Task: structure prediction
Amino acid sequence: MPDVQALAQQVGNEMLNVVLVRVCEPPPVPVVTGPQGPTYYPVGYEALVDESWESCRRVTKQYLNDIENHLKESGLQVRFEPIEETKLSVADEIVEYANKIPFSLIVMATHGRSGVSRWAYGSVAHKVLMGSSSPVLLVRTA
Result:
């Protein structure tokens, strides 16, 4: 957020239109194979998925709303777009969104994972960097 404000000071607030995006991921799918062979989802899984989506919507809305309000206090034009119920990976969803609506610059926070955790979780930032047609500024989170 301070990085977006610093950029705004460089180019002028009236030149920027900030769009905040956050992707809700589906919960991991527990798969159980029964003695009869076919794979099925455990009892109560659908309720767990619904609860997970609702929780993500609530948290995302609050998170983006807080950032939006803070940036608007700086005089920026800001709106947020939660992306819900995606079938794509988070990185693919961000790339698809950014490529549909051309942006001058994508600013993204990154965890800066390396080694095993990067291998296990993948790198959303790297995938966006490689897949987006817009320039990407990566900011490492504290």
The longest strand covers residues 17-23. The chain has two domains: 1-87, 88-142.
